[in-house]
Amino acid sequence: MPNYIAVEELYRLYLKANQTVCTDTRKLLKDSIFFALKGTNFNANEFAQKAIDAGCSLAVVDEEKYVSGPQTVLVEDGLKALQQLANYHRRQLKIPFLAITGSNGKTTNKELINAVLSKKFNTLATEGNLNNHIGVPLTLLNIKPEHEFAIIEMGANHQNEIDELCYIAEPDFGLITNIGKAHLEGFGGIEGVKKGKSELYRYIRQKQGKVFINGDDDVLIDLARDNDKITYGCKKLYDVIGKDVSNSEMVSLKYTTRYGEKDWNKIAFIHTQIVGSYNFINCLAAACVGNYFKVDDDLVKGALENYLPNMNRSQLVKTTRNTLLLDAYNANPNSMKAAIENFSKYNSSKKLLLLGDMFELGEYSTEEHKKIVELLKEKQLNDVVLVGEEFFRLNDNSYKKFKTTNECKAYLEQQQVSDTTVLIKGSRGMKMETLQEVL
After folding, report:
1. Are 302 and 184 in the same domain?
2. Both 249 and 342 in a single domain?
3. What range does the domain containing 13 cover?
4. Quick one: pLDDT at residue 180?
5. Are strands 384-387 and 58-61 parallel, antiparallel or unpaired?
6. What residue ranges of the chain have pLDDT lower than 50?
7. Cα–Cα distance, 91 to 437 (Å, whole number)
């Protein structure tokens, strides 16, 4: 029987290693614990000795032949060991944990909520998009004794994935941004998305925690009917009630509370630096979370007004020639529709849409790409370039089409687009953000 290390002993070594772990030999941290994970095309057990030679205090391997001395320890499964260690660490922590998932806006919500809560607490929030079965454990293991609040983003593209992440992170609070047509292929259609994403509600219910919820979203309200809810929205007397008062491309809002001021003329404006009317509800969610955790209203206002979008999400970029609405981090039918509808209302004499394929739609792909083209026609948007194999193969030549982003880039370079407001949107793999180089 192999001599596997127990999680309690591994935790002792993790504390000794200044609570630092790593999984990538290209980003090794001195004195940290290196976890050798396996993928389809790699086996990091092969790099265990390299990690130790580079200064790691310990390497965790799951193949006995790579145990080369006291600085390598053996586990049954490297990934499971990482997850078990993260869960063991989480159980030592007595701070609030908020988990965020949804089809659109997960990262924006996480960033906005972090901006608000960090006005009062020492927060730890998911970095970048470390929101999967590897990223969530790594995020948990980054939580140090000084942290007072954890905000954990959870991504999923198939059933039971959110469930699994909940049993690792054990959140006390949950927020689902929305449920839409994202990852239809993995979830098996929209009903599958509902079932998969609402695993967070089910976990929080079992734990007798609370969920923050958009009360105006009938789908979410139905899925959370048995949950203890903290509500936000516009249509009823919620815990936090908001009003969209935007009069430019940037979101502006006002909010009050169930027991607060009801005269909108007396309530302060919040002028954000985020584009897209679809981001109003994300700002309101952050205000609701802040209000629940007793962050002062003026601090909530300051956090939302000073937040600057990044990573190609809801960014307004001014080049020497054009104004770009850069929302190219990802795309699915719901987020694409919202972006187009928002852009159609823009007050600009010259508008151009550069739209890339939406990925992971499986058998629904052709139909959903067709719907986007129909929406463009309905909104009478004429200056449009469609990019990618899915758009290209549609039997509709209403708009200019290119198979690749590079072909589109060459075309735009020739066109010398100027004095134009440009929407750039597409799935991550399309790399639509590269088009800004010629605009």
Report:
1. yes
2. no
3. 7-77
4. 72
5. unpaired
6. none
7. 47
- Find the CATH number of the domain harbouring 424: 3.90.190.20
Q: Same domain, yes or no, for 121 and 211?
A: yes
**Phi then psi for 131, rounded to 5 degrees?**
-120, 20
CA distances from 68 to 57, 225, 350 (A): 13, 54, 65
Residue 185 pLDDT: 67
Instruction: Tell me whether residue 364 is in a domain.
Output: yes
Q: What is the pLDDT of residue 255?
A: 98
**Beta carbons of 156 and 203 less than 8 angstroms apart:** no
Which distant-in-sequence residues (6+ apart) come within 8 Å of 11 by Cβ? Answer: 85, 88, 89
Q: How long a stretch of residues is the chain?
A: 439
CB atoms within 10 A of CB 163: 14
Q: How many domains does the chain have?
A: 3
159 and 294 inside one domain? yes
Q: Could you give the 3-state DSSP secondary structure of residue 238?
A: coil
The CATH number of whichever domain residue 233 belongs to comes to 3.40.1190.10
pLDDT value for 316:
87
| CA distances for 344 relative to 272, 286, 296, 302, 339, angstroms | 21, 27, 36, 30, 9
Claim: this prediction has a pTM higher than 0.85: yes
Residue 276: per-residue pLDDT: 87
**72 and 97, same domain (yes or no):** no
Q: Give a yes or no: residue 1 inside a domain.
A: no
pLDDT in tens, 91-131: 999 999 999 999 888 999 999 999 999 999 999 999 987 89
pLDDT of residue 76: 95
* Paired tokens of 178: 């929305």
Give pLDDT, residue 42: 84
Distance, CA of 73 to CA of 36 (rounded, Å): 11
Q: Tell me, yes or no, whether 86 lies in a domain.
A: no
